[in-house]
Amino acid sequence: MNPPAPAVATTVAGSLPKPSWLARPQVLWAPWQLAGEQLAEGKRDAVRAALKMQEAAGIDIVSDGEQSRMHFVHGFLQSIEGVDFARMKRIGIRADRYEADCPTVTGPVRRPRPVHAGEVRFARANTDRKLKFTLPGPMTMVDTLADEHYRDRAALGLALAELLNAEALELAALGVDVIQFDEPAFNVYMGEVREWGIAALERAAAGLKCATAVHICYGYGIKANVDWKKTLGGAWRQYEATFPLLAKSTIRQVSLECANSHVPMALIGLLAGKDVLVGAIDVATDAIETPEQVAATLRQALQYVKPQHLYGCTNCGMAPMARPVAEAKLRALAAGAAIVRAELEAGQHKG
Ligand code: ZN
Question: Which range marks the domain in which residue 255 is found?
Answer without folding.
Answer: 9-344
